[in-house]
Amino acid sequence: MQSNKYKILSLFVAVLFSWGCQEIIEIDLQQSNPKLVIEGRLVNQRSFQSIKISESLNFYDTAGMKPFTEALVSLLDADGNFLVYFPYNPEDSAYQTRNPLELEIDKSYILQIEAKNEILQAEGKILQNATLDSIYYLSAEELQNLGQPTFGDGYFLFVNGSLNNEGIEYFKLDITVNDTIRNSRGDFSNSVLTSEFFGNEFQALPIPGSYDEEDSVGLELYTLNEDVYRYYEEFISLLFNDGGVFSSPPVNPTTNIKNLTSPENEPLGFIQFSSIQRKSIVIEKSE
Question: Where are the domains of the chain?
Answer without folding.
Answer: 36-127+254-275, 131-224+277-282
